[in-house]
Design goal:
The complex is a heterodimer. Chain A has helices spanning about 20-55, 55-65, 70-95, 100-125. Chain A is mainly α. Chain B has a single domain (about 15-120), classed as 3 helical TM bundles of succinate and fumarate reductases. Chain B has 5 helices and no strands. The longest helix of chain B is centred in the last third of the chain and has 30 residues, at about 95-120. The chains are: A mainly alpha, B mainly alpha.
C-alpha cells in the first residue's frame, strides 16, 4: 500500500542540516528581494499620490521618504531592485538552457551580488 | 478513511494547468522591467526631495510620466504573479486562496492608485 508511513516521510531539502551554498543563498535572496520590494513600491505610489493631491500632503510624504529612515528604506530598495534585476537576467539566461553547471552558476551568483552593490553605489552617486 | 484509490486521491493535487502560462508571463514582464526599471530609477530618483512645483512640472512631461505609469503597471503585475508563487510554496488550503486573492487585490489597487496619480500629474 502506498498509504504506509504517510505524513512521516523525510522532507527535502533538510533545512536544519542543509549546508548553505552560494547557489541556494542567491536563489532565496532573489525571492526575498522580489517580495520585499513591495514596501518601496508602495512608498513610491504613496509619493505620487501625494504629489497629485496637494503641496502640503506632498511635503509631508516627501519628508517621510527623505528622512533618515526613508533614505534607509530607499537605499535597501535600490539594492533589492538591482539584485532582483540581475538575478532575473540570470534566470533568463538559464531559461535558454545555458550556464547550468555549478561553476558557471556560482560565477553568475557572485556577478549578481557584486553587480548589485556596484549599481547601488552608482545610483547613490548619480541620483 | 477514504474509499477512493490512491491514484484518485492524488489526481488534481499537482498542476494548476497554468504553469507554462504563468512562467511565460513572468518571462515577458521581466524583460519589460529590465528596460523600465533603470529608466524609472533615474527619472523618479532625482525628483525625490524636490519642490512640489518642480515635481508636477517634471511628471507633466510625456517621457517621465509614461515610464512611471508603465513601471507601476508591469511591476505590480509581475509582483502579483511572483508573490503568488511564494504563497503557493509556503501555504495551502483556505489560507493559500485567501492570500492569493489578497495579493491580487493589493497589486491591482496599487497599480490603479499609481496610474491615477500619474494621470492627474500629467494632464
Amino acid at each position: 500500500m502506498a498509504d504506509v508511513n504517510r505524513g512521516n516521510r523525510p522532507l527535502s531539502p533538510h533545512l536544519s542540516i542543509y549546508r548553505p551554498q552560494l547557489t541556494s543563498i542567491t536563489s532565496i535572496l532573489t525571492r526575498i528581494t522580489g517580495n520585499a520590494l513591495l514596501v518601496g513600491a508602495l512608498l513610491a505610489v504613496w509619493w505620487f499620490l501625494a504629489a497629485a493631491t496637494s503641496p502640503d500632503y506632498f511635503a509631508f510624504v516627501d519628508g517621510v521618504l527623505t528622512s533618515w529612515f526613508g533614505d534607509l528604506v530607499m537605499l535597501l530598495s535600490v539594492w533589492a531592485l538591482w539584485y532582483h534585476s540581475l538575478a532575473g537576467l540570470r534566470h533568463l539566461y538559464w531559461d535558454t538552457g545555458r550556464g547550468m553547471d555549478i561553476e558557471t552558476a556560482e560565477k553568475l551568483g557572485w556577478g549578481c551580488i557584486g553587480g548589485s552593490v556596484v549599481l547601488t553605489i552608482l545610483t547613490v552617486l548619480v541620483v | 478513511m477514504s474509499y477512493l484509490t490512491d491514484r484518485k486521491l492524488a489526481v488534481g493535487l499537482g498542476s494548476a494547468k497554468q504553469g507554462t502560462q504563468h512562467h511565460w508571463g513572468m518571462t515577458v514582464s521581466s524583460v519589460g522591467l529590465l528596460v523600465l526599471v533603470p529608466l524609472f530609477v533615474f527619472t523618479f530618483g532625482p525628483m525625490l526631495g524636490q519642490p512640489h512645483a518642480d515635481v508636477v512640472a517634471y511628471f507633466g512631461r510625456p517621457f517621465p510620466a509614461i515610464v512611471a505609469a508603465l513601471t507601476f503597471v508591469v511591476g505590480f503585475l509581475h509582483f502579483k504573479n511572483g508573490a503568488q508563487v511564494l504563497i503557493e510554496d509556503y501555504s495551502d488550503g483556505f489560507t493559500r486562496k485567501a492570500l492569493i486573492v489578497g495579493v491580487t487585490c493589493l497589486s491591482y489597487a496599487a497599480a490603479a492608485t499609481g496610474l491615477y496619480a500619474i494621470v492627474r500629474l500629467a494632464l
